[in-house]
Design a protein that fits this description.
By secondary structure, this protein is an alpha+beta fold. It is built from 17 helices and twelve strands. The chain folds into two domains: 46-250, 2-Layer Sandwich (Cytochrome Bc1 Complex, Chain A, domain 1), CATH 3.30.830; 274-474, Metalloenzyme, LuxS/M16 peptidase-like (Cytochrome Bc1 Complex, Chain A, domain 1, 2-Layer Sandwich), CATH 3.30.830.10. It is globular, with a radius of gyration of 26 Å.
């Protein structure tokens, strides 16, 4: 019976194919219908005020659900720490929730669980964060508790040791993978050693190991103050409620801090493409990064670069992914990133590729980098890329977490809080000429940093034969070997 059904199904398929007119396109080649007009979207209202102690408060009203997120963003990230104390900001950020003068870390966790709240503290390159999400009915109490961990943490000695060990393990785990090796090497090559961005935000074994509890206490005392912080409130709050809750939680915080100069990430001068190789013997894949430093969100052509990035590698159907993955099968995925940071960021293509295709993947990726600077982007391709970005934007900010993430970017980057009110309209107005001008002025395809981490016994000779640039071999710690 099963064989009979199979024969019938195959016969039906043959009959259907025979009914198609000669030259008719197959099912795989039928073009999708053109995109319809974009649905209107209005970004939620954003309001700003300041407490008497200098704390900046930003409210984004979203009343669809009775949920509120409160995210304190402190200018106390790794970009502010001395090079010799690399990892101090991250260590301090992780320890904030591990106790106050009267509560242990377990007490804090149990209290947040009782509220049904999600709470975490951390720090990255840009800032330190204390984030709590809860139902509106209990949010004031949850935020007040989180404020206690920010203003008066106890930093128990046992927790300092535990979190240090976690940071050391995290570093070792990162550098056991080719992606971690390549990422660290790229920023070391792109920026001067004085640039905070040249160092991993989580620290290195030597710097992490040397950190003490006194270092953490001193960092908190000198860097954590309301004048250096922004409280971002997103969710079901009115302006009056936001003022009352912010005052209740943080109004009594009186710490002070000296002024800080703007952070700069000076670029390492170079002429010509550099190819940096890091050995990871036995690796079955190579991690490749191709790019350059020197980008900020405050650049006048920021939105043009956003559009350019989407065309080049910012999505599944972008040029880099369609080339390396779909056309050649070198990788499971490839893309590009506009890594924006205070003081200067970077633009890069990255992918993990098959070892035996490493040199070929580099040639194709570098070729795409050059092509977008030398050839105008066709109107349909640009429109498709931009439409993808602006049509996806409302969905990306439909939750309080999504909204908080977008506003956090503005705060960290130094952009106005109303930036997203006209974001889609301004992005839709980007033209092929805008992208061409941005590519011509910003991208330097003959002065690239190319980093490859993998099994050099298999990939070094083929890469050298491609003559992509001057080849250097580094050890995992960033020291030039040859």
């Amino acid at each position: 019976m099963r064989g009979h059904r199979l024969i019938v199904n195959r016969l039906a398929l043959v009959v259907w194919a025979a009914m198609l007119p000669v030259g008719a396109p197959s099912a795989q080649t039928v073009s999708p219908p053109p995109a319809g007009p974009l649905r209107p979207y209005i970004f939620p209202p954003v309001e700003e005020f300041q407490l008497a102690n200098g704390l900046r408060v930003i409210l984004v009203q979203k009343h669809t659900l009775p949920v509120v997120e409160g995210r304190l963003i402190l200018d106390a990230g790794a970009m502010r720490e001395p090079a010799a104390k690399n990892g101090l900001a991250a260590l301090t950020g992780s320890l904030l929730s591990e106790g106050t003068g009267t509560l242990t870390g377990a007490d804090i966790a149990r209290a947040m669980d009782a509220f049904g709240a999600r709470y975490f503290t951390t720090a990255d390159f840009n800032a330190a964060y204390a984030d709590v999400v809860a139902l509106k009915t209990v949010f004031p109490q949850a935020l007040a508790l989180s404020a206690r961990t920010v203003a008066a943490p106890s930093f128990p000695a046992g927790e300092v040791s535990r979190v240090k060990n976690q940071a050391l393990a995290g570093y070792q785990q990162s550098h056991a993978r080719t992606a971690g090796l390549a990422s660290d090497a790229f920023v070391r090559a792109a920026f001067e050693s004085t640039a905070p961005f040249s160092r991993p935000a989580s620290g290195t074994p030597s710097t992490i190991g040397a950190l003490t509890r006194d270092d953490v206490i001193n960092w908190h005392r000198t860097m954590f103050a309301p004048s250096a912080a922004t409280l971002l409130l997103v969710g079901d709050l009115s302006p009056a409620e936001a003022r009352s809750i912010a005052q209740q939680a943080y109004g009594s915080w009186t710490a002070t801090r000296t002024g800080q100069t703007p952070v700069e990430n000076p670029i390492r001068a170079s002429s010509g493409t550099r190819v940096i190789l890091i050995d990871r013997p036995g690796s079955v894949q190579s991690s490749i990064i191709i790019g350059q430093p020197g980008f900020r969100a405050t650049d006048p052509d920021y939105l043009n670069m956003v559009a350019l990035n989407r065309v080049l590698g910012g999505g599944f159907n972008s040029r880099v992914n369609m080339n390396l993955r779909e056309k050649h099968g070198y990788t499971y995925g490839a893309g590009s990133t506009l890594d924006l940071r205070p003081g200067g960021g970077a633009f890069r293509i990255s992918s993990d590729v098959r070892t035996n295709a490493t040199d070929s993947a580099l040639v194709e990726a570098v070729g795409e980098y050059k092509r977008i600077t030398s050839e105008p982007v066709p109107v349909p391709e640009l429109q498709g890329a931009v439409n993808n970005l602006i049509s996806a934007f409302p969905n990306a900010v439909q939750t309080v977490q999504g909204l908080a993430g977008r506003l956090q970017q503005l705060i960290v980057w130094g952009l106005p809080v109303n930036f997203y009110a006209t974001y889609r309209e301004r992005l839709a107005a980007v033209t092929p000429e805008d992208v061409r001008a941005a590519a011509a002025s910003r991208l330097k395809p003959d002065n690239l940093i190319v980093v490859v981490a993998g099994d050099l016994s298999k990939i070094e000779a083929p890469i050298r034969a491609r003559n992509l640039g001057a080849v250097e071999v580094w050890d995992p710690n960033g020291n030039k070997v040859r």
